[in-house]
Amino acid sequence: MYKKIKIITLVNSKGMELQILNFGATLVSLKVPDKNNNLVNVVVSLKNLEDYLRDVHPCLGSSIGRYAGRISNGHFIIAEKEYPIYHEKGVHLHGGKEGFDRKFWNVEEIAKGENPKVVLSIKSNHLEEGYPGNLQAKVIYQLTENNEVNITYTATTDAETPVNLTNHAYYNLDGEGTIFNHNLMVNSSSHLEVSDQLLPSGRLISSKNTRFDRPKLSKIGRSDFIGYDDTFVLDKKVLKAVLTSPKTGIKMEVFTNQPASVIYTPIELPKLPFKNNVEYSKYAAICFETQNFPDAPNKQHFPNSMLKPKEEYLNKSIFKFSLI
Fold first, then answer.
1. Is 120 exposed, middle or buried (0-12, 13-18, 19+ CB in 10 A)?
2. Is the pLDDT of residue 1 over 90?
3. Is 289 noted as a catalytic residue in this protein?
4. Please, which of 57, 101, 255, 278 could form a disulfide with 24 given CB 3.0 to 4.6 Å?
5. pTM, 2 dp
6. What letter would DSSP give residue 146?
7. d(Cα 42, Cα 25) in Å, to the nearest integer?
8. Catalytic residue of the set 168, 182, 191, 253
9. 148 in active site
10. Which residue segments constitute the domains of the chain, with CATH numbers given?
């Protein structure tokens, strides 16, 4: 299996470096210049490529599919037909027992030079993990001369099926420690109400004057912060979120065509062999899982998640880096 491992490195003229692994179409490293012109790896990375094949890490940098987030009831219904899906206590998470994050993707194209990119693809067969239709999916990772990381997911199917793809990178603009002192802004006026199992109830809740209300840059670890594993409904503004680090001076802006982003700040990361023996502490990183609403296949009033034949799924997200 290890012989199948391929890593692709993209570099732009500004010194940024992006590394992609074909297993899970995984973003394994992203080096960005800081205010002192030192390169900082701003995503949580594992020491060895083989470590990504072990089913112990929490989707670090992985591509998630067929459906990112949670689906309730252990099934969904299409055209009055019920499709059972893998679940644990009624919760189907990130595509099932063996989602796209646990599979080798095909490297379709590598383009070096100006605005370098890599294209990877995967085929998901009819009824894999319970999903109908033969699904063809692709991801394009592109590193631009404007210090943007463009992540574009596309998919087509031969039968109607739910699709919701995203990238699950864990960002820390210091490259170590905690994101507690980072600053965060999210253009989001509401969030999804969830159960104890983090399943959406179907209600959208106003975020105004709550811990989800972040219209201006403010310290992540402010007094009302208890961590996030929540779906922020994104406003119809071009800029969706901003993350900054006072320590390194790095700023990350998030843009996407998706209606929501699950923002996840794990209290602690598992004890894993991190690259360069980096040490992380409480609230080590933040994920921006740009996507459709979780459980949309079972919530008819949520944005449509069904992909039909002759249609193309598109998730285009941009992570732009600069200095404060």
1. buried
2. no
3. yes
4. 101
5. 0.96
6. T
7. 18
8. 168
9. no
10. 2-323 (2.70.98.10)
